[in-house]
Design a protein that fits this description.
Blueprint: E1 9-10, E2 14-15, H1 16-39, E3 48-62, H2 63-68, E4 72-78, E5 81-100, E6 106-127, E7 132-134, E8 137-139, E9 144-148, E10 153-162
Antiparallel strand pairs: 1-2, 3-6, 3-10, 4-5, 4-9, 5-6, 6-7, 7-8, 9-10
Protein name: DUF4330 domain-containing protein
Organism: Alkaliphilus peptidifermentans DSM 18978
Keywords: Membrane, Transmembrane, Transmembrane helix
């Protein structure tokens, strides 16, 4: 039995052109699958699970907002993603902002009715080589996010992270 018969078929079953096309399609599918798998989330290194402590800076809160902010269960929120956390420490000081005086100099003045708060929250997270996650939120210093408790909602910035 010949490898290619007089009709151009491999082993008398399939045309050599069809076989070449099938091999190319299979090779292309394997290449795309491999490339997609290597760039996907599936190959990420799994991180170490531990409690992550994050300090969130909440600027220019009113006294009503500050009174509503209390220790206990809370939620961090960022672009539709949530993370359950626990509010541990609330530190508030009168808000300060730069103000231009009549002679053109800029001084730092306290705002009598506004407060800046540093809120320390802790929650279960995953510490990986290249990032830290709390729930489904990737936390980085300087990232804007929303802090929600039962009676409080405010927008702040991540000030510091402790593993």
């Amino acid at each position: 039995m010949k490898l290619i018969d007089e009709n151009g078929r491999v082993f008398g079953k399939i045309s050599w052109i069809d076989l070449t096309i099938l091999i190319l399609v299979a090779a292309m599918a394997l290449f795309l699958f491999y490339r997609g798998f290597m760039r996907s989330e599936l190959k990420e290194n799994v991180g170490q699970e531990k409690n992550v402590t994050v300090t969130v800076f909440l600027p220019k809160l009113t006294s009503f907002q500050l009174d509503a902010l209390e220790e206990g269960p809370a939620r961090l929120q960022r672009t539709g993603r949530n993370a359950n956390v626990e509010v541990m420490i609330i530190e508030a000081v009168p808000a300060q902002e730069p103000v231009e005086t009549k002679d053109g100099t800029i001084v730092i003045a306290s705002s009598p009715n506004r407060f800046d708060a540093k809120v320390t929250v802790t929650g279960p997270g995953e510490v990986m080589r290249d990032r830290i996650m709390i729930g489904t939120i990737e936390v980085k210093v300087g990232t804007d996010l929303r802090l929600l408790t039962k009676y409080f909602e405010g927008v702040g910035v991540i000030y510091s992270i402790d593993e």
